[in-house]
Specification:
Blueprint lengths: L10 E6 L4 E4 L2 E4 L1 E6 L10 E6 L2 E6 L2 H10 L1 E5 L17 E6 L9 E6 L5 E4 L5 H12 L6 E4 L10 H16 L3 E5 L2 H9 L1 E12 L2 E9 L9 H5 L21 E5 L11 H21 L3 H8 L3 H14 L13 E12 L8 E12 L5 E11 L6 H20 L20 E7 L9 E2 L10 H4 L2 H13 L10 H10 L3 E3 L2 E3 L16 H17 L19 H14 L1 H4 L13 E4 L2 E4 L16 H10 L14 H4 L4 H12 L12 E2 L9 H8 L13 H11 L5 H4 L18 E3 L2 E3 L14 H10 L1 E2 L3 E2 L4 H8 L4 H13 L8 H17 L6 H9 L1 H4 L17 H4 L4 H9 L21 H15 L9 H11 L8
Parallel strand pairs: 1-12, 10-11, 14-15, 18-19
Antiparallel strand pairs: 1-6, 2-3, 4-7, 5-6, 8-13, 9-10, 9-12, 13-14, 16-17, 17-18, 19-20, 21-22, 23-24, 24-25, 26-27, 28-29
Helix pairs in contact: 2-3, 3-4, 6-11, 14-18, 20-24, 22-23, 22-24, 26-30, 29-31, 30-31
Length: 955
């Protein structure tokens, strides 16, 4: 494989997409730039190059941070694209069922750099493309180069369609050609959004003719001629893609049915080998729906519709080998459903002895909480006139299945996904294969002989998507009529439709699989108008009914996938931090919270039935999390941040409940709360909720990026960051508007402002925020200590992309003109230089600092006793309040709550209040000379010493 360009040669690119673009009936339409104002880039350090070509606009810079910020600061005036055509460009037939195929299966296999080097005569690309031939053709047209000069490395191929990796590669290639240097572009979930905006690449509508309940004919209408859009940069640049291909004749195996096929005359952009899978997906999914609607066995329906004895024999052989049955297997986990699907396909001219036939039966497991689909067993029958070595074929088939199902089943990325680019969770996959031998004497036989292995053809693999779709429907009762079958789409479908059992098959209300229910057809407007009034009355009514207790669920009731998701929710939610008393058992409660209204103690969160939540049903747990009402009907105090937890998705809520119920039960009763009257009268909280609590789940901002929305969900929801970083009003509610995230005092510690009011001596950058949250320290700000230390330790358990999303969102709180890395580095260097030139004050504070602190904080020798970050950069030193510095000197920095961070010892027992005050004055004067001296230090030190350490290091 060709080596990547040297790091010092690589520049970095960022693109700006038009506000609106779409691909309609093969015609690309986009907003066009009228004026691009790059004057704001003149004040930025470094060199920049703005690349414009049609509606394609990008920036090339020396660093990724510079490129990103420069792209944000471009001021672009756009002209609007024409309005979209009606929903049905062609007459919409009544009773049709649409099946779609996306232009992009997902953004790519994982987040990472895509690099292009268009220097000299050749174009070299490093991109995980799954359609390398199509990508090379697009790049050749985009840059006007012969295709034999386009080299593609790291290609995956063998996929079910294009991914955003092709778009990132085209972006990088166009930027590299303009810059005359290798250019790297970051591939992430934002490219999935580009694919969504393009719309479907293929749309097939099917309808049927039923006479006295018997199927007599099918009609297929192909509304779109293409199956995959060219690389987006090519379309934005106003260039035509590779010559459109005429539509190939459609292969329909079910000749017993009266097929009517309607296809547009216009050609479309096509990918070799993809049409068979698309048509098989639509046809086989529709027949599966039809079988359930008619109450027939899906295999029997296919056998009746076929007139080909070899195809019939193949289906029967596969059904026998698989032990086909419509009866479902029960799962040991209540949230896991098992399903089985069937699909059939043919490829090649009718009558051709080498015509490929394939019959598939797949078993899947679907986690109804997480949406994960696991392919557990596959029985495949192939009839193509060749004897194949079964073991080699099984290995080759498994390899191709993994490559094809990875984009089909993996996360495509949304605000409620954990991590980015995750592969499907795979269990043991059993693959069985049957090959029917050539027929010369009209006798069918099963061949298990060995011969040379050849590549599997399109006809053999065509049913791969339909069989998973049908098994998914069998398991859940919901029908997804467009791949991919990612976990978030499965969860959304399960949330929208409530399956019910009917006639031996799971049909949705109304009897038609996938049909949307429409309750309250009469007087719906009256019921809808009463809902707000009823909701308000229910919220204000202070006395809530108790929810009946349940027997504690067994610890092994939930699947590993659900428990792992719940563990991550608990980590980002810091459940153990607040529900664990110093020195106590994890989650057993008893942690004290000092509030202006008195002292509150956290409750026992373990599944103990007497003192914890072991007798709580999920309904009781969800009510507490979303509405602040306990199982017994009592109002909960908002020190428990249900105001934030209400934003959790249903999936995360259920997973968190499962995880907590699987933890060890601890019998522990926390102390009684000590609140002053009238705050100890819980029914008053119903009014508080009516004034200050919104139980609406998180709603993504459609105008923001996927990364922004993911970060917003984690910060505003399970992370409940505003609970500490936002000041509260006189009634204990978080203040809004400009006060939001402006900083607050919690348990004697200052939670600094996260918005533009931050008092940090060096402006925070997104890179600094990521380092601080991921590693526990930032090179320009210092280490996480106090209550923030266990928070950082919890974030260490999260996938990297989730922490990056949090950093991205928090950086956005400072406004669109966030600091660059160069801004931060320059400010840091100035402050460190000023502190180095300062003359130590000849007083008790200076002498105490030299004895207790200088060995670490002024050491020029690297090592375990050397503080890596100057106090001149420490936010605690520059803060308007001395609390955090005092707390750190009293109780030190604990390794249990840090990651790869040096220890700082506690001076609680070795330094007096006067000595700590003297050191604090010295540190403030020397390392933050631009800030006023702290007042009343001795009094505040005494208060914090008496309070003791109110936070517990992570266990």
């Amino acid at each position: 494989m060709s080596e990547l360009p040297a790091n010092e040669e690589v520049r970095y690119g960022a693109v700006v997409r038009p506000p609106r673009f779409r691909l309609e009936e093969g015609r690309f339409e986009s907003d066009q730039p009228v004026n691009v104002d790059a004057s704001a880039l003149d004040s930025l350090p470094g060199s920049y190059q703005v690349v414009e070509r049609g509606a394609f606009i990008g920036v090339v810079a020396d660093t990724p941070d510079r490129a990103r910020i420069a792209a944000q600061r471009l001021v672009i005036e756009w002209s609007a694209a024409p309005p979209p055509p009606p929903a049905c460009a062609e007459p919409c037939a009544k009773g049709e069922t649409d099946y779609a195929w996306p232009n992009r299966m997902r953004f790519g296999p994982s987040a990472g750099w895509v690099v292009a080097d268009a220097r000299a005569g050749r174009v070299r690309l490093w991109a995980p493309s799954q359609t390398s031939t199509a990508l090379r053709e697009d790049i050749a047209r985009l840059l006007g180069r012969p295709i034999d000069q386009i080299e593609l490395h790291q290609a995956l191929d063998d996929g079910l369609g294009r991914t955003g990796a092709d778009d990132a590669a085209a972006d990088a290639a166009l930027l590299s050609a303009a810059a005359g240097a290798p250019v790297a572009v970051w591939l992430d979930r934002s490219y999935a959004a580009d694919g969504d905006r393009l719309g479907p690449g293929q749309r097939i509508a099917l309808s049927d003719t039923l006479t006295d309940g018997n199927l007599s004919g099918l009609e297929a209408r192909l509304h779109l001629a293409g199956d995959a859009a060219p690389a987006l940069a090519l379309l934005l640049a106003g260039l035509s893609a590779a010559d459109p291909m005429p539509r190939q004749p459609l292969s329909i195996p079910y000749t017993a049915l009266d097929w009517k096929i309607e296809a547009p005359d216009r050609p479309g952009y096509r990918l070799p080998g993809l049409g068979a899978a698309q048509l098989a997906f639509a046809r086989e999914s529709y027949l599966d729906e039809l079988a359930h609607r008619l109450g027939q066995d899906p295999v029997a329906l296919r056998l009746a519709a076929l007139e080909d004895p070899r195809g019939q024999a193949l289906i029967e052989a596969v059904a026998a080998r698989a032990g086909w049955s419509t009866r479902r297997r029960r799962s040991e986990h209540p949230e896991v459903s098992h399903g089985r699907g069937f699909a059939y396909g043919e490829e090649g001219p009718a009558g051709d002895p080498k015509r490929a036939r394939a019959a598939w039966i797949a078993d899947v497991e679907v986690n109804r909480i997480t949406g994960d689909i696991a392919l557990t067993r596959l029985v495949l029958g192939q009839e193509s006139g060749e004897r194949l070595d079964q073991e080699q074929l099984r290995a080759e088939l498994q390899r191709q299945l993994i490559e094809r199902t990875s984009p089909l089943l993996a996360n495509s990325g949304d605000a409620q996904e954990w991590g980015e680019g995750e592969e499907p969770r795979r269990g043991p996959l059993s693959i069985e294969h049957i090959t029917l031998a050539p027929i010369s004497d009209q006798t069918l036989s099963t061949s298990l002989g060995s011969a040379g292995l050849r590549a599997l053809d399109a006809g053999t693999l065509a049913p791969s998507v339909a069989v998973i779709s049908n098994a998914l429907f069998d398991a859940t009762g919901v029908r997804l009529r467009e791949p991919p079958f990612s976990p978030e789409r499965v969860r959304a479908a399960l949330a929208e439709y409530a399956p019910t059992a009917s006639a031996g098959a799971r049909a949705l209300p109304g009897g038609i699989p996938g049909a949307r229910t429409r309750p309250w057809r009469k007087k719906r407007w009256l019921a809808a108008s009463m809902l707000p009034l009823a909701g308000a009355a229910a919220a204000l009514w202070p006395f809530k009914p108790a929810i009946a207790p349940i027997q504690r669920p067994p610890a092994d009731l939930y699947s590993a996938a659900t428990l792992e998701r719940g563990r991550l929710v608990a980590e980002v939610g810091d459940c153990a931090v607040c529900h664990t008393a110093p020195g106590g058992e994890t989650n057993a409660g008893g942690h004290a919270f000092e509030t202006p209204f008195g002292t509150l103690y956290s409750t026992n969160l373990t599944p103990d039935e007497e003192t914890g939540i072991g007798s709580w049903s999920f309904a009781a747990f969800e009510r507490a999390m979303r509405h602040g009402v306990g199982r017994d009907g009592r109002q909960l105090y908002p020190a428990f941040p249900y105001t934030a937890y209400a934003k959790l998705s249903d999936t995360d809520m259920q997973a968190l409940y499962a995880y907590l119920m699987s933890r060890p039960a601890v019998s522990a009763t926390p102390p009684e709360n000590q609140l002053r009257a009238p705050f100890n009268f819980r029914p008053l909280l119903a009014g508080w909720n009516a004034l200050f609590h919104d139980p609406t789940p998180f709603q993504p901002d459609p105008t923001k990026s996927a990364q922004y929305n993911r970060g917003a969900y984690l910060v505003e929801g399970p992370g409940h960051c505003s609970a500490c970083h936002t000041p509260r009003n006189l009634l204990g509610a978080e203040r809004g508007a400009e006060a939001r995230f402006s900083g607050a005092i919690v348990d004697g510690w200052e939670a600094p402002a996260l918005n533009g009011l931050s008092s940090a001596p060096v402006p925070w950058t997104e890179a600094d925020l990521y380092a601080y949250l991921r590693e526990g320290s930032s090179p320009h700000h210092g280490a996480a200590g106090g209550p923030m230390a266990p928070v950082v330790a919890g974030l260490a358990e999260l996938p990297e992309e989730d922490v990056r999303a949090i950093a991205h969102y928090v950086a956005a709180l400072s406004g669109p003109l966030a600091a660059t890395v160069e801004d931060a580095a320059s400010a840091a260097a100035e402050r460190i230089q000023a502190a180095g030139l300062a003359t130590p004050l000849p007083d008790e504070g200076g002498r105490s600092f030299e004895r207790a602190c200088a060995a670490c904080h002024e050491s020029t020798l690297p090592g375990p006793t050397s503080a890596q970050i100057s106090l001149a950069l420490n936010t605690n030193v520059s803060s308007a309040r001395p609390d955090n510095l005092i707390q750190t000197m009293l109780d030190g920095v604990h390794a249990e709550g840090m990651i790869d961070s040096a220890l700082m010892p506690s001076f609680r027992d070795s330094l007096s209040d006067a000595q700590i005050a003297a050191i604090a004055r010295y540190v403030r004067a020397r390392y933050a000379p631009d800030q006023p001296a702290w007042q009343d230090l001795d009094e505040r030190i005494g208060e914090l010493r008496d309070a003791g350490a109110d936070w517990a290091p992570r266990r």
